[in-house]
Design brief:
It contains 11 helices and 11 strands. The chain has 329 residues and is an alpha+beta fold. It starts with a helix and ends with a helix.
Length: 329
Amino acid sequence: MDKFDRIFQLHAILASRRTPISREELEAKLECSKATLLRAISTMKDYLGAPIEFDRDAGGYKYVGSSDGRGSSGAAYELPGLWFTANELQALAIMRRLLKDAGGGLLEEHLGPLAKRLDDLTRHQRLNLGEAASRLRFPAIAARPAGEAFNTVASATLQRRKCWIEYHARSTDERSERTVSPQRITHYREAWYLDAWDEKREALRSFSIDRIVKASVLEERAVDVPEAQLDEHYASAYGIFGGKADKVAVLRFTPESAKWVSDEKWHPSQQGRRLDGGAYELSIPYRDPRELVMDVMRHGADVEVVAPAALRAEVGRQLERAAAAYRSS
């Protein structure tokens, strides 16, 4: 434990005590020597303004003030500025790097002032957190930008306000205007989506935020869809396409591919089992087959769709088209 952690823990101990605590007990809790403890107390008193005193009658240390650890002003003493444990600092360093790589610069402008403070906090010699910038990488492959409307729809979602959007659908190339009640913002496979209640269609829909051309927050309060209903619609079936799962895909992977697939999480409700000879069978609930077909095809000859017949036929058609393209060239 270094001095920063020790100061943080010493403060936590004294702030939670209603009675003085002996030097010996503090040494045991902090796992340090008498000299180390006294240096920590001196640092807190001299540099951090901590109201620590030694109560000779009780034979222990306490914060000056009433028995509940409050100072003469009546306010509980707190360490100045932002204080974190070593593990929390390490988590912050990782989180900042993750936001920089995976966030596509989305929050860089807003995190600027905080980032400087975090840089100061993470200049932590023992943890060596300054290495985070060069030693940690979270590459965003095939990422799509969040789009100019992100801040507007995020604001509407958090403020629980309805939102007007102009949407340019990628699949149909059509533009439409919608009034929606934002429910959630989802980051899925390097893209951002708005899950919302669509007033015109009277149903839950997902919108790629990068395809929202314009957006504005309305004064009217958003319709709140219960969490259970959202989970049933968005999480019961495979992939980003909404709707309650009504089919189960059964996929059989070769023994070689099973070494990796058996450890993968394709869906929260998946079922997997080893077969004789080392093959692996994976069952996944789904509704819309489009995303599932793409994921099956990336395994090529190492996977076979066992059921249902419609999914097996669709994967077969896609493979035939791919093979035909290569034969024609």
